[in-house]
Amino acid sequence: MKALNSLVKFGAGAVLATVGAFASTNAMAAGGAGCGTYTQADGTAVTLECSKAPIDLTNKGSLQRGAQTFMNYCVGCHSAQYVRHSRLAQDLDIPPELVEKYLMVTTNAIGDHITAGIDPEVQGQWFGAAPPDLSLETRLRGDDWVYTYLLSFYEDPSRPWGANNLVLANAAMPHVLHNMQKSLSKEEYEARVGDLVNFMAWMAEPVRHDRKIYGAFVVLFLLILLIPVYLLNKEFWKDVK
Length: 241
Ligand code: HEC
What we know:
Layout: H1 2-29, E1 37-39, E2 45-47, H2 60-73, E3 80-84, H3 85-91, H4 96-103, E4 113-114, H5 120-127, H6 137-141, H7 143-151, E5 153-155, E6 163-165, H8 178-183, H9 186-204, H10 208-237
Antiparallel strand pairs: 1-2, 3-4, 5-6
Helix pairs in contact: 1-10, 2-9, 3-4, 7-9
The structure holds heme C.
The site of heme C has 23 residues, from helix 6 and helix 7.
InterPro entries: Cyt_c-like_dom, Cyt_c-like_dom_sf, Cyt_c1
Keywords: Heme, Iron, Membrane, Metal-binding, Signal, Transmembrane, Transmembrane helix
Pfam families: Cytochrom_C1
């Protein structure tokens, strides 16, 4: 009976551990802590809540729009060194000809990784901080942090580029989406930035959607496996007093 107990406990423990691991990766991907604090003009410190990024890796239209924004507005300075251009065609259902025509800004070979237009090290000397590689950025900071960061630029004449950021104070990055922001309504602009962050989330973990489905199947499998294991255990021990 003791052995049976420990076996059942072990089985339940394994299931719980799997569920726990599954839940914690979700929490990590959700961004965790807030988006920092900033000081208002009157000197009071305000805590900035992260806004929720609209992540949906099954929404190909959103990912395609995000890819377009990323290649047009970000790749001049940032690389995404773990992502090949051909992967955009494959995973986002974009015909390779269109990738070659519109989405390859820093290379002519579709098999190449996404490199920055200008060497980030040289930029480091110009801006005071080198633009980091963005392949894994949403895993490093969380989707919501990146989304909130991109929405938190404000005018600040004291900065070299005339803009500052609430989330990353005195960021060396200019507000590169300024013209886009001016030409769109608030909702449209937030939707465009949402698509962009959705695309960055895909870059950081292309299998994220599938992983969750596999995770659910694994937990289900373990739960079902518990039944024959329990019965087998009963059978093995039935003659042992
Ligand atoms: C003119 C060059 C330039 C362009 C274009 C640019 N960035 Fe940046 N970016 C920078 C620099 C420089 C930094 C480093 C900021 C710092 O640490 O102060 C940065 C930092 C960032 C960070 C924060 C990194 C971190 O974890 O600290 C994110 C996120 C980011 N950029 C996203 C983007 C996205 C998305 C785009 C396209 C819409 C973009 N950037 C376009 C120069 C650029």
